[in-house]
Each structure stands twice: as C-alpha cells, then as structure tokens.
Amino acid sequence: MNNRKSFIDALYSKYCDDDETAIIDLPQLDGHRRVCEWVGMEKIKNQLKNLNNLRWIDLSDQQIDRPYNDDNDFDQNQFHLPKACSLYLAKNFLTNWLDIAKIIKLTPLIEELILSSNPLRPPSDKEIVEICDHFKRLKAIILGDLNYDWSSLLQCSKLWPSIERISLFENQIQTIQIVDNNQFENLKFLSLSKNPISDWNEICMLGKLPKLETLELPNCQIKMIRFNENNLFSKLQYLDLSYNQINDWQSIAELNKLLSLKILLLKRNPLFDTNEYYHNFNFIISRIRRLEKLDREPIKKESRNDGEKYYLRMIYPEYLESYKNPKTLLKFLDENPCFQQILSELGEPIIAKNLTKQEKIQQNFIHLNIYDEQNSDQSRKFLRKQIPITMKVFNLKFMLKHLLHLSDEFELLVKSIDNNWHYEEIMEDRNDVCAYCIDDNVGIFVKRI
Fold it and tell me: Is the pTM value of this prediction over 0.70?
C-alpha cells in the first residue's frame, strides 16, 4: 500500500525529469509519498512545460489508486493536459468511475482510454448522472480483465454516447442483450476475446448494430455457427473466430451470409486439424466467395481460381452421391452454398475413378500377346505376358531371348491381328513398350534377322 500513488504523482515521475520540473521528495505523511509541493500557480505552470505537448500518455502499471492528493493546494481547474488524446491506465488500482472522471477532466481532448486490469466497479446510476459529461468525447475504450459481464458493460456504456471502439477481452461475458435500437449506434469495433460465449445465438444479438465493421471473437469456446435470421451484421467486414471449437463445414458455409465480410480469421479450430492447410484454405474461400483475406493471407484472383478448381474436383463426387437423395442433396447445398455457381462457371470436372488396391496395381502393368511363329518348340510359338508399363523394349528383348530360347539376332514387330485394320511398326530398343499402340488386337511378333 505504501507504493500507491496518484495520477499526478505518476505523471511527474515518468514525464518530468529535467531540472526545472524535478520531483520534490517530502517526508512520509499518513503512509503516502508526497511528490510535489504546490506553492503557487506560477511554479505549477513552469513544471507543466514538458506535459503540454503530450498526446499519448502511458501510465500503465504505476500503482495509481487516485487522481491526485486532495490535501494538496492542487487546483484541477487550472491543471490541463491540453493535447492528450490517448491515456493508458492499465494494471493500476483505480476502483471507481468518479476517479476516472476526475482524471478525464484534466485531459479535455481525450478520445481513447485503457483501463484494463483495474479493480474498477461499474458506476451507479447516481454516479452516471454526476460524471457523464466528462466522457462525451470518448471514442475508444479498453476494459480487459475487469471481471465484467454484459450487464456491467451496459451500465458503463451510459457514460459513452459517442463510443466507436470497445475491447472487453478476458472478462466474464456469457450472454448478450441489446436493450434498444440506439444502444451502441456508433460502434464500429468490438472485441470479446477470451470470454466464455459458447452459444452463437448470443453473438447474433449484436447483429443489428448498424455500424459494426469489426468483431473479434478468438478463444470464446464457440462450437457451431447458425443464423436463424437474415440480414444480420450488414456492415461487418472483419471477423476473428480463431482458437475456437468449430468442427463442421456447415458453420463455415453460414458465414457466406455475411454480405460485407472481407477478412476472416479461422485458424486453430478442430475442423482444420485433419487436413492440410491448402485443402482447408481452398474449401473455405470456395464457400465464402466475397473474402479478400483469410488468416492474414490475401486471396488473389489466381489463388481463388486455382482453389475453386481444386474444391470442385474434390467435392464433385460427394455431389453426385448426394444427388440420389433429395434430403442429402439439400444438406450438401447448405454446406456448399457457392457450389452451383462455381459448377456453372467452371463446368463439370474430370474425376478419376476410385480404384481398388488391385486395380491400382494392375494399372501399372500391361499385357502382351507375343508371337514367335518360327520357333520349333510348339509351346513357345505364343506367350501372353504381363510386364511393367515402364519396361524398355531393350529389356523386353532380353527377357524374350531367355523365355523363347532365341540364339539368333532378332527384332520385335508390333502388328495388328485384326483383319479389319492394318497396323505395323518396328519397336526401337530405346523406347518404352507402352509407347506403342498395344491392346488385345495387337501382337508383338519376333522377327529373326
């Protein structure tokens, strides 16, 4: 407790360190450290020279628990920080909004206020009436780690009629309620990071805010996204849903209903743990076609085009299967809201048949009908042989020399055995066997030289 100080004490300690404004240490008085002895307005004015041009004042973690020492000859009507627009007071010991109002009165142009990690209780209605005029200019406020729920925010918000940016990270917000249509009518940015909001219906309560452009919801335990009402979040351009518990593609498809959405963060959700990054990336941008950036990666025209081709090729077999049942088809189209449009633009993909293991093995081999009509051994006049498709003609000849007991020099001739068409070609040693037109209507003939 002995280390606690006032806002004015902390301000001088940090920003006034020249000879003219040096701190004057006085004896302890009632357990408090007296920092400055106010001995007349002229001296005060001299001491304030270094403060007049401050725009951003950072007094975080300074043990502040009051605005100033009331027993000083301090005239708050004469003391001002005329250019200060941002004030950082996080990690201090401020407990009530009356003290915040006294500090704000010293900064007439203040627009941004950071009060995170203070033991700050919400104001009473009586206190709001008393101090609300001091906060009319406030545009941005950060109230992280205050143990507030939504009702606490609503009570505090009565002080800020012009607020545009609110950050409420790491509080105790579980439910959300908008009392009237004029509430937060100027709000453009809202961060609810690390609040235990698992129900997306609670998030939808914010959907009618007329100017909301940015909504941050990382680490909020959200499991599923569904919109039960149209035209919500009409201005929302930036949405952060990273580090949640989303585990179904229907939730991703629902985000396509956000007609202004351009930037989306979705990393570290269970849905994406089992697939490669490029697979997830392509499947997301193909379900939400208005996106311009995903997980901080810009979506260029070329990457979208390639991604949609990949998505269509991968998802098309599922579409064909779902087409057999109207209910299954409806579910597929709900999960893939842009599928028909992509299909119309790109056309049906060529899908390779899903082969069995045996078919995959057979795909790497070719069957040959081999004729050696001059062979004296009747059993060797014809062979049917399976060889790898990568075998060279040279290697085939080496194999046949042993199988057919050939001692003379020979060459191989590819020739049709179907009387309806004629095809004949000498096989070159350097070529692959599969380079020639070989099927059951074509034979390989041994021709001795």
Answer: yes
